[in-house]
Amino acid sequence: MKLSKKYLAHVVFESNDPASKTFDIALLAIIFGSIIVAVLDSVQSLHEAYGRWFYLLELGFTFLFTIEYILRVWLTSRTLKYVTSFYGIIDLLAILPVYLSFFIANTQLLSVIRALRLLRVIRIMKLGRYLAEADFLRESLKASATKIQLFLFTVLTIVLVMGTLMFVIEGPSSGFTSIPVAMYWAIVTLTTVGFGDITPVTPLGQLMASLIMLLGYAIIAVPTGIVSSEMARRKRPEHFEKLKSCTFCGFERIEEGDKFCRKCGNEIN
Amino acid sequence: MKLSKKYLAHVVFESNDPASKTFDIALLAIIFGSIIVAVLDSVQSLHEAYGRWFYLLELGFTFLFTIEYILRVWLTSRTLKYVTSFYGIIDLLAILPVYLSFFIANTQLLSVIRALRLLRVIRIMKLGRYLAEADFLRESLKASATKIQLFLFTVLTIVLVMGTLMFVIEGPSSGFTSIPVAMYWAIVTLTTVGFGDITPVTPLGQLMASLIMLLGYAIIAVPTGIVSSEMARRKRPEHFEKLKSCTFCGFERIEEGDKFCRKCGNEIN
Amino acid sequence: MKLSKKYLAHVVFESNDPASKTFDIALLAIIFGSIIVAVLDSVQSLHEAYGRWFYLLELGFTFLFTIEYILRVWLTSRTLKYVTSFYGIIDLLAILPVYLSFFIANTQLLSVIRALRLLRVIRIMKLGRYLAEADFLRESLKASATKIQLFLFTVLTIVLVMGTLMFVIEGPSSGFTSIPVAMYWAIVTLTTVGFGDITPVTPLGQLMASLIMLLGYAIIAVPTGIVSSEMARRKRPEHFEKLKSCTFCGFERIEEGDKFCRKCGNEIN
Amino acid sequence: MKLSKKYLAHVVFESNDPASKTFDIALLAIIFGSIIVAVLDSVQSLHEAYGRWFYLLELGFTFLFTIEYILRVWLTSRTLKYVTSFYGIIDLLAILPVYLSFFIANTQLLSVIRALRLLRVIRIMKLGRYLAEADFLRESLKASATKIQLFLFTVLTIVLVMGTLMFVIEGPSSGFTSIPVAMYWAIVTLTTVGFGDITPVTPLGQLMASLIMLLGYAIIAVPTGIVSSEMARRKRPEHFEKLKSCTFCGFERIEEGDKFCRKCGNEIN
Question: What span, in angstroms and rounded, lies between the C-alpha atoms of B111 and B115?
Fold first, then answer.
């Protein structure tokens, strides 16, 4: 019989046959649908006109998510592990807000939690061709983590020193009302965002601001250089896929021109 | 006789002799002329002073484009294929707006279609030295497409979560009137554009904004790293295609200009 | 006896055993605590509410820093060298402001000096895993120093010429009140910060501004390219140092983990 | 006798002995002095207070530049070639403005020409250690010229199409008064400058703006990638300096591992 528990678990957790793929695509559609409803509902004019329908749709989506969550809890072989896993918590957070809203009035906080539903897309994406690429990006960033931490510390030191200086130079009359605000301005400037809500007006302040801007313009090269060189270095393994294996010991990294296996010394034909 | 249909087709479709080149340059001049007229006509003061002349020039350009279109349809050996091709549709769109304007009053939509005339430059450019380079760029981008898609998804997730958070933290009083508006602000901030039309005013909002800015400043390294490493990788083959092998010992890295094999000393013809 | 002068010096200056590490972590906590107090104290509302407590905390931190400074002066084997070193001066600057504030009224200047306390973190960081990475970054930047100087000169030339031009084109009525102000605007624009406090309003000014923006957008590639290629080049040697040669045939690319020579099959010890 | 014409020409045109270096440094000081005076003189308050002194200093600098120009014309062996060369024209432009100001009243145009004096620094710089680096940068940019042209064409197409679209969508009421102004806005946005003097207010306009921003954020990778990969490729020649030459024919590019000269077939020991 086709609708066995094992078959259902396959449909829900795998994605290598038509039924599983249909399930994944339907889930994606519901996730994006629920997010679009939440986003549109935040627009005052749309909320007033269609707020009732948005609420009904939201209840519908939550009902479907609840069924899916119950299915997953029931179908998984290791229930406790799933419930306490990253995806298990995300899945629960996707349905909780609506049930909580029956008791709690703070709907704004709930809409933030509802936005987290987007994270559910990651699981479905993981099953596709993005997996290798995402791993590649994650590993590149992980390998550069120490350099990036050092870079962020340097940035924060610049921000603190420059923020304090600008607070002293410009003062509250130009909008630099406190060191935290001046640090916020320094970040806005160093990252070349430049909102313009706070700007220096004294010549000395404008000179200092120019220095921060040139610094920000120059040091943006550092994270780029870090990630670029890391990626360039990491490219090589991709190359290894074309290599042949040793017929004796199965060692997989036999390179072109190798006459003997590096691991077992077996001659390669 | 020189003005045969075959000769005309050569002039219109090729670009390897003086007559063809003159045709291409004249066409380029007309395209740029028509675009400059459209741009200048949108300036209120110039429209009032010279609107009449701009209209006459536009009619003239359209007349020339119409002749060119008829020529191409007549001269091509595969008329249907040309008419339905990308360039065929662009060529038709270049003349349609003016003829439509006799019947339709919405001149603004037509001016957008007229801007598409610039796309016609691509065909003329394709015949020049840009071809190889354009292919190089296109292939680099295509090879990085999966990574770029993943990157865009990550960016949109950040934008949705941050937009929702800022909408909740700052609220309509600071200009964050809805989640879509807050997402627009998050894109403005993450891409380091920073218009300043909407800015956070609460300390918590400014802290969140600082995080988004540092994030945007850091992750700009990712697309750059992707494209850079892709381009660096793609450079190599270009070099190796020119190498030949030694006819005596089979050494594969004979470079241009080598007269003797570096490995066996055999003379290379 | 454990509390000897030698043991104390080890705790204060080294960081390879639990006692030394505890000392370093306590110092880090005090440094960050004192900086957070200084930052919060600059907020008007917090200063009014808790200014008294911030002052007492500041006195406490300064007392601890003073003890630490006396300890370092007493424990070091070369007192004069320490006092005149970079870290010695930073350590002194960390405690001076508070003592000076008993005599001098200008508290703002003192708060800038207090911000320099963050520099003390560098010494503690130097003892950790960041050392190698920081050296890597510093060397990359040092190797690119000539190129970066040349780049900065080019940027400043563009800023001077463009600033003068914009001052002439736009004039004081648009906010370009003098060449220094116009140069400040040119830096704001070239670095893509774009505050928007001063913006061109004449068509010619907007055209010139567009040129500067495209220029700034294009030349940001130069520092990035410099640092990236420098980092990529610097990566390689790191890898090759670990290689050994085959003792039998002299093949030079034996990698870590290889048990047999790839060329002759000789076993590697 | 030491003060011969030949010795003077050496001092003025070369820079490899103390006298020549002193001459170059004095010239640099005068150039920077004259530029600083021009910049300060544009500040209204300083002009009112010290305008008289600035004018006298300017006359002094011009007198020194005039002597230098006469010296160069007199000392060079090929007078006509010098006068019509790039540097000859720059040298003349450095002194002309002041003499012209006796006849012409437009002092603003003259101050722009005076800013060009900074270009004179290039010649003096050329004689220093920057020469090789500047050549490196120039060649890297030249090698990428075709790609950069193509990139700029793509950017301008995006700017025209997006500018026209935004003019149609937002219209004059939001500040998009004409297509040229909308194109200026598109450049401000695409290059991530984001002044905020003109910003979209309609939802559709904000959506289009978001697309332009993400596009600008993504395609900044292209020029960076072009220049980076070009620089990485160009690094190699530096490597060739370590190679040995053929003892028979003097061919200079013998690489490690070569057994026979590639040019003459001579065996290498």
Answer: 6
CA-CA distances (angstroms) from residue D132 to C141, C146, D83, D129, D135?
A: 18, 10, 26, 7, 5
Neighbours of chain D (3+ CB pairs under 8 A): A, B, C
Q: Are C262 and A259 in contact (CB under 8 A)?
A: yes
**Share above pLDDT 70 across residues of chain D, in percent, rounded to a whole number:** 72
Report whether A227 contacts B147 (CB < 8 A). Answer: no
Nearest to A232 among C184, C191, C232 (CB): C232
Show residues of chain B in contact with D259, CB under 8 Å.
262-265
DSSP per-residue letters across chain A:
-TT-HHHHHHHHH--SSHHHHHHHHHHHHHHHHHHHHHHHHTSHHHHHHHHHHHHHHHHHHHHHHHHHHHHHHHH-S-HHHHHHSHHHHHHHHTTHHHHHHTT---HHHHHHHHHGGGGHHHHHHHTTTHHHHHHHHHHHHHHTHHHHHHHHHHHHHHHHHHHHHHHHHH-GGGT--SHHHHHHHHHHHHTT----SS---SHHHHHHHHHHHHHHHHHTHHHHHHHHHHHHHHHHHHHHTTPBPPTTT--S-BPTT--B-TTT-PBP-
List chains touching A (3+ CB pairs under 8 A). Answer: B, C, D
pLDDT tens digits for A86-128? 778 888 888 887 787 777 766 666 777 777 777 777 666 554 4
Could you tell me the two tokens for A2?
């086709």
Q: What is the CA radius of gyration of chain D?
A: 28
User: Are D196 and A192 a contacting pair at CB < 8 A?
Assistant: no
Q: Do C225 and D235 count as a contact with CB atoms less than 8 A apart? A: no
Q: Do C195 and B192 touch (CB under 8 A)?
A: no
Q: Which residue of chain A comes nearest to D43, CA vs CA?
A: A203
* B145-170 helix and B130-143 helix, angle to the nearest 10 degrees: 60
Residue scoring higher pLDDT (D11 or B57): B57
pTM for the model stands at 0.78
Element (H, E) at D51: helix D44-75
Q: How far apart are CA D212 and CA B188, in angstroms?
A: 10
A217–C42 CB contact, under 8 Å? no
Residue C210 has what pLDDT?
A: 93
pLDDT for res B116: 74
Residues of D whose CB is below 8 A from A196: 195-196
Which of B118, B125, B130 is facing D160, going by the closest CB pair?
A: B118
Q: How far apart are CA C75 and CA C11, in angstroms?
A: 10
Residue C197 C-alpha from the chain's centroid: 29
Which residue type does D69 have?
Y
In the predicted structure, residue D83 carries a pLDDT above the cut 80: yes
Mean pLDDT of A44-73: 90
Among C159, C183, C185, C224, most D C-beta atoms within 10 A, so best to mutate, is C224
CA distance D94 to C96: 51
Q: Which of A191, A198, A229, A233 to mutate to test the interface with B (most CBs of B within 10 A)?
A: A191
With beta carbons less than 8 A apart as the criterion, state whether D190 and C218 touch: no
**ipTM of this predicted complex?**
0.75
Average pLDDT over residues D200-218: 89
Domains of chain D: 5-130 (1.20.120.350), 135-235 (1.10.287.70)
Return the structure tokens found at B61.
């350009």
Specify which residues D260 forms β-bridges with. D267
Closest residue in A to C178 (Cα) is A203
- Return the ∠ at Cα B218 (arms to B158 and A159), rounded to 5°: 110
Our measurement of the distance from residue D70's CA atom to the centroid of its chain's CA atoms, rounded to an integer in Å, reads: 26
Cα dihedral B140, A133, B161, A96 sign: positive
Give the residue from chain C lying closest to D152, CA to CA.
C214
